Amino acid sequence: MASRLVLLLAAAAVAVAFLPAPASAVAWMVGDDGGWRAKFNQTGWADGKTFRVGDTLTFMYPKDNHTVIQVGKDDFAA
């Protein structure tokens, strides 16, 4: 009986050793070195990247060139 338990524990230890390591979250800077900019190609930047739950996206932009203001639907569409 004890040898079966030892064998079972050894098999479990071997199985755990071969499991892949859990994936770590990735911090992405949107636009890579160019940052977030006017006329930025979001879909082109995302091509070839795999995003997972837990990843973060950072939007870097020149503070002097951008403002955040509230606009209406028509202004946004324009």
UniProtKB/TrEMBL annotation:
UniProt protein name: Phytocyanin domain-containing protein
Source taxon at top rank: Eukaryota
Segment forming the signal sequence: 1-25
Cellular component terms (Gene Ontology): plasma membrane
Record keyword Signal present: yes
Keywords associated with the record: Signal
Molecular functions (GO terms): electron transfer activity
